[in-house]
Amino acid sequence: MTAEDSLREMLAMIELELRRLRHDRTEIYTRAIQPILWLAVFGTVMSEVRGIPTGGLPYIDYITPGVLIQSTIFVSVFYGLTIVWERETGILKRLLVAPASRSATVVGRSIASGVRAVVQALIIFPVAILLGVKFIPNPIYITAAFLVLFLISGGFAAVSIFVASLMKTRERFMGLGQALIMPLFFASNALYPIEMMPPALQYVALVNPLTYAVDAVRGLLISGDLSGLAVDVAAILVFDVVIFAVASVSFRKIIE
Amino acid sequence: MLSPAGVPGMTLAIETSGLTKTYNRRTRALDGVDLQVWPGEVFAFLGPNGSGKTTLMRILTTQFRPTSGEARAFGTDVVRRGSEVRRMIGYVPQETSVWLDITGRENLLIYSKVYAVPKDRRKGSIEDAIQAMGLEEVADRMVNTYSGGTIRRLEIAAALLVKPKILFLDEPTIGLDPSARKAVWESLTAFKGECGTTVFFNTHYMDEADHYSDEIAIINRGRIVKSGTARELKRSLNGEILRFSRNHKQEHYQTHGQNGFDEYAVKKVRELDLVRDAAVSGSLLEVYVDDGERALPLVVEALWSEGVTFDRISTARPTLDDVFLRYAGSCRSGRGGDGG
């Protein structure tokens, strides 16, 4: 096994995801409904309340980064379902018999899921503009924001592969997947500033990778405040490296 | 079909010695498997459910490590040099192993990249594999429109992309109707004839092992209980049975003992060199022989010389089903029928 084999497998996994998307985009559209409702209904209504200190931003603008990230995380976390399905079929066995390393399979699948998640975000992006969200019109910032989305989704796809290796059936996986996403979303700065939370929850928010991703994307797309960007990106990278390693180790178990 | 003779110095395609695999420190899936498969052979591995067939295949394809023992593919250790082994084998698991939501050709393209087929040979390999498995007409359709047999041929095609030296097939035709099974085997046989690949397959279908394999091993409870060619295995069950029956209306039936077969004549038949045993049941004389073609004239002559007449001779050969039941039939009630 060489680095070249591993890289080739990763690229092949990304290509696979893009080809699947080309044939069937239904999932991407149906998954866009929920985040659009968050923006169109929740965002619009809560804008009228004006009870949340958003630093002068309209509330719908304030929550757009969080909603974008939540929608991509949904894609990643349920990516584990694909892995559970592939475990039930023979695909994983077959990938294990390929020359690339097992970690290349895990990282490759995670990155592929990240790509799928970014496509998901691309659908919501124009809808947000139609709803009146004002993005900073800087192509470099926007590209950087999508890179952050990609990194955080890849990490959560690895979380999902890790969960899939523990919960080997679809039903168990569904249960845990559902139980994971909303608490993460609520225990982050996606909908309100951390300072508003009870102290205990603030600690949770500080170790929640979503908080850093939301902060980075909000800075890049909406507020233009990039003072925390370096810390945010560093936190996301640490999360990715750790979870890729954990998922690669646990992946062995998935096939036995 | 002949099995290639063991040429001294020739590297075995697959060789295992004392292979064991224990799950969770308790369940012993393999219990000392010694196996030899010669290059170019089609090797059928038979066994009841849970006998260790799939475990052995997953060790040979480097997915698992054995608990103890050794296994080599063309001289390369499957544990220590797994990545080298992975480059020379093709593997088709029992379950569906292609993506259903892309086309057949796209599946082959993805697998050719995953399996590190060099870029300049990729297109050619994909075309060859499509042709070898007769998928020309369906290659550009979505796989979820394929029939079970076509999916199986696509899966095998994906394993052929690397032009493997050994092709591992785990229950290759399970769940397929007879015509789909035939189509799979015809494609495989043609491919094998062209490329000389060693084929190692697990199966439940005795007729497949009988028709398509050069060599067979039967595994039961993690041990190989019998191996040999289909012919040898069948012969190991008392060879053949020659059945002589006579017409009830004939006079002899009234005048001779043993329902018409003279006891002395039966004894004489029993004493013949090529005869293992003989038994009378009703108006039927059953003679157990190793080689029916050679024994028949001698038995007929012995009966005639004693003045015994008969009006019908039939021969029955044990089928591979009989062999399987004899050596592996009593999976749950102990290691019964252990003949090897």
Describe this entry's structure for a reader:
The complex is a heterodimer of chains A (256) and B (340). Chain A contains eleven helices and no strands. In chain A, helix 6 crosses helix 7, helix 6 packs across helix 11 and helix 7 runs parallel beside helix 11. Chain A has one domain. Helix content of chain A is 80%, strand content 0%. Chain A is an all-alpha fold and 256 residues long. Chain A is globular, with a radius of gyration of 18 Å. Chain B is α/β, with parallel strands linked by helices. Chain B has two domains: 222 residues, Rossmann fold (3-Layer(aba) Sandwich), CATH 3.40.50; 77 residues, Alpha-Beta Plaits. Helices cover 36% and strands 25% of the residues of chain B. Chain B is built from twelve helices and 14 strands. In chain B, the strands form three sheets. A six-stranded mixed sheet of chain B has the order 6-7-8-3-9-10, sandwiched between helices. In chain B, strand 1 and strand 2 form a beta hairpin. In chain B, helix 3 packs across helix 4 and helix 3 runs parallel beside helix 5. Classes of the chains: A mainly alpha (256), B alpha/beta (340). Chains A and B meet through helix 1 and helix 5 of A and helix 2, strand 6 and helix 3 of B.
Helicity level of chain B: 25-40%
**Contiguous helical run count of chain A:** 11
Computed structural class of chain B? alpha/beta
Reading the helices and strands of chain B in chain order gives EEEHEEHEHHHEHEHEEHEHHEEHEH
What is the average of the pLDDT values of chain B? Answer: 84
Give Rg of chain A in angstroms: 18 Å
Topology, number of strands of chain A: 0
Described by its quaternary structure, the protein is: heterodimer
**CA(first)-CA(last) distance of chain A:** 22 Å
> What would CATH call the homologous superfamily of the largest domain in chain B?
P-loop containing nucleotide triphosphate hydrolases
**pLDDT under 50 segments of chain B (min length 5)?**
1-6, 252-258, 330-340
CATH-defined topology of the largest domain in chain B: Rossmann fold
Please give the CATH class of the largest domain in chain B: Alpha Beta
Q: State the major sheet of chain A.
A: none
Which pair of protein chains has the largest interface, and what are the residue counts?
A: A-B, 26 and 32 residues
The main β sheet of chain B shows up as: 6 strands, mixed
Structural class of chain A: mainly alpha
Could you tell me the strand content of chain B as a percent range?
25-35%
Radius of gyration of chain B: 25 Å
Order of helix and strand elements from N to C terminus of chain A:
HHHHHHHHHHH
